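FAQ

Q: What does a record look like?
A: Structure on top, sequence underneath. For example:
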């Protein structure tokens, strides 16, 4: 699945959010809206096409307030799954 299609599904709220991602979101004091903003403004910085757990993308993007967020999206299922989110260390 290409990144534009992933962004389109995210914009339609047609995705899943893992329990782990939600825990990390809370730990980093991020909102779902900020995560979506990062996906829309971001770009793929790493692809894992042959991971045994399923294809995934690491996306780096910024919120409207310029906060950098990394988002890992898994593509093992029919819908994108936000697997984890975090604020990267410089």
């Amino acid at each position: 699945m290409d990144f534009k299609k992933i962004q389109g599904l995210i914009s339609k709220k047609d995705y899943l959010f893992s329990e782990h991602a939600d825990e990390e979101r809370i730990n980093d004091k991020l909102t779902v809206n900020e995560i979506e903003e990062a996906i829309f403004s971001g770009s793929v910085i790493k692809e894992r096409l042959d991971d045994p757990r399923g294809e995934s993308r690491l996306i780096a993007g910024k919120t409207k307030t310029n906060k950098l967020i990394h988002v890992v999206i898994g593509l093992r299922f029919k819908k994108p799954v936000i697997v984890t989110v975090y604020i990267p260390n410089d």
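Q: Is there anything notable about this one?
A: Residues 32-41 form the longest helix (10 residues).
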